[in-house]
Amino acid sequence: MNFFSPPPTITAKVHATLPESLICREPSEWIGGFAGGYNDVFLEGPTIGTSESVFVTDIPHGRILEVDKQGKFTECLKYDGEPNGMAVRKDGKFVVADYKQGMLLFDPETRTMSPLVTRWNLERFKGPNDVIVDSKENVYFTDQGQTSMTDPTGRVYRLCPNGRLDTLLTNGISPNGLVLSPDEKYLYVAMTRSNEVWRLPLHANGTTSKAGVFFRSFGTAGPDGLAVDEEGNLFC
Questions:
Q1: What Pfam families does the record point to (predicted)?
Q2: In this structure, what are the phi and psi dihedrals at residue 22, rounded to the nearest 5 degrees?
Q3: How confident is the model at residue 37 (pLDDT cuts 50, 70, 90)?
Q4: Are residues 61 and 92 in the same domain?
Q5: What pTM did the predictor assign?
Q6: What gap in Å lies between CA 113 and CA 78, rounded to an integer?
Q7: Which residues pair with 202 in a beta bridge?
């Protein structure tokens, strides 16, 4: 039973379709190790840039693609990586969670990629998945790798503007999408393999405590990307 009014129905329409000329059928390590049937392209991380174009990643082929207002695709960059989620900083550059290379920085003006942070205490990341940037330019990102119920070691990090890297969580069960509450006092993290969304209070001194399960479901596929509206409603 649900006592809330049903949400309004929003009918989606196709804005853009990747043209045949940009479909990549080259061999990829990511495709070779993936259980699904994704052979040509796997688009992720849709993010609106300062130009109002939508930028997306192509994980298996290490590409950043731009979609303009008219729905035209352009390949901005192809490199040795596996980019997933992205977030825009105030300077217009994109923070990219790259499963293979760590956390990178993409400049849409020069169409170049550079490392942002690739290790934690000399240790390589498991495989970053998603990223957000708060109002103070702190970068929060999930390090998902292949963690699951049998390997609950996924991590959530915060990269501060001064370069300090904080570990907020080390026992995540496939941490995936993440989002902040409107007042930025709480961090929500999707735990895909446990079918949950966790809620982490963020204290003024930068620490977190008393993290708990905010939402739990059941089935073969758990929550992935997260979003909140101005009223603080969580969507997953």
A1: SGL (PF08450)
A2: -105, 5
A3: low
A4: yes
A5: 0.94
A6: 9
A7: 208
Pair type for strands 94-98 and 102-107: antiparallel
Considering the domain architecture, whether residues 150 and 105 belong to the same structural domain is answered as no
Query: What confidence tier does 36 reach under pLDDT thresholds 50, 70, 90?
Result: low
CA–CA distance, 214 with 216 (Å, rounded to integer): 7
Domain span including residue 52: 44-124
Which residue, 208, 154, 160, 164, is CA-closest to 186? Answer: 208
How many domains does the structure of the chain reveal?
Answer: 2
- 146-160 per-position pLDDT tens digit: 999 999 999 999 999
CATH of the domain at 105: 2.40.10.500
The whole-angstrom distance between residue 76's C-alpha and the CA centroid of its chain comes to 19
Q: Sheet of 196-201: strands edge to edge?
A: 175-180, 186-191, 196-201, 212-216
* Chain centre to alpha carbon of residue 218: 22
pLDDT for residue 28 is more than 80 = yes
For the record, the structure tokens of 95 come out as 């923070």
